[in-house]
TrEMBL record:
<keyword id="KW-0449">Lipoprotein</keyword>
<dbReference type="InterPro" id="IPR041846">
    <property type="entry name" value="ENL_dom"/>
</dbReference>
<feature type="region of interest" description="Disordered">
    <location>
        <begin position="133"/>
        <end position="157"/>
    </location>
</feature>
<keyword id="KW-0472">Membrane</keyword>
<keyword id="KW-0325">Glycoprotein</keyword>
<dbReference type="InterPro" id="IPR039391">
    <property type="entry name" value="Phytocyanin-like"/>
</dbReference>
<protein>
    <recommendedName>
        <fullName>Phytocyanin domain-containing protein</fullName>
    </recommendedName>
</protein>
<keyword id="KW-0732">Signal</keyword>
<dbReference type="GO" id="GO:0009055">
    <property type="term" value="F:electron transfer activity"/>
</dbReference>
<feature type="signal peptide">
    <location>
        <begin position="1"/>
        <end position="30"/>
    </location>
</feature>
<dbReference type="GO" id="GO:0005886">
    <property type="term" value="C:plasma membrane"/>
</dbReference>
<dbReference type="GO" id="GO:0098552">
    <property type="term" value="C:side of membrane"/>
</dbReference>
<dbReference type="InterPro" id="IPR003245">
    <property type="entry name" value="Phytocyanin_dom"/>
</dbReference>
<dbReference type="InterPro" id="IPR008972">
    <property type="entry name" value="Cupredoxin"/>
</dbReference>
<keyword id="KW-1003">Cell membrane</keyword>
<dbReference type="Pfam" id="PF02298">
    <property type="entry name" value="Cu_bind_like"/>
</dbReference>
<comment type="similarity">
    <text>Belongs to the early nodulin-like (ENODL) family.</text>
</comment>
Length: 182
């Protein structure tokens, strides 16, 4: 028995729509983390930067915000070797203009040190390990939208992911539902 054009289209939609919905379920929102909270990027923070980072779940596209005074400090993104030895001579990226933000654009470790060698040697450095993806922290527990928040991001829970349907998914759903009534 031959299928009509309308039935073929409906069959295609019934296959494509669930895939589009599932792909939308995996979308996560990037989070902006304030390194050092209200203290900012300082020589002797109340909580060690690495202790904080080890309790925080970073994912690709999250960002780190470093608050520091221009001409008093800087932040360097460096290799593991430069991190271990506090070598400031050839950074991957230098942030020297006071308050600075950097995007965690790939999975893996990122190494940050103070641009002042003596500060770095006294422990002003940070290692962040970025995961390729994961559920976004809920705004009430892990969002860091202002410098006063310093708590680590919570471990993911079954209800912490949010669903966002893109315009194309919404159109496909509307067409699919509409085709059911033809």
């Amino acid at each position: 028995m031959a299928m009509g054009v309308g039935q073929s289209f409906l069959s295609l939609l019934l296959l494509v729509i669930p895939m589009l919905i599932l792909s939308s379920l995996s979308e996560v929102t990037a989070t902006k983390y304030y390194v050092g909270g209200a203290e900012g990027w300082v020589l002797k923070p109340n909580v060690s930067y690495n202790d904080w980072a080890s309790k925080t779940r970073f994912i690709v596209n999250d960002s780190l915000y470093f608050k520091y005074q221009i001409d008093h400090d800087s932040v360097l993104v460096v290799t593991k070797e430069a991190y271990d030895t506090c070598n400031t001579t050839h950074p991957i990226h230098a942030m020297e203009h006071g308050d600075s933000e950097t995007k965690l654009d790939k999975p893996g470790p990122f190494y940050f040190i103070s641009g002042k060698v003596d500060h770095c040697k006294l422990g002003q450095k940070l290692t962040v390990v970025v995961l390729s993806s994961g559920p976004a922290p809920s705004p009430s527990h892990g969002s860091h939208d202002h410098p006063g928040h310093y708590a680590p991001a919570p471990a993911p829970t079954s209800g912490s992911a949010s669903v966002t349907l893109s315009g194309s998914v919404a159109v496909a759903l509307a067409l699919g539902v509409g085709m059911l009534f033809i």
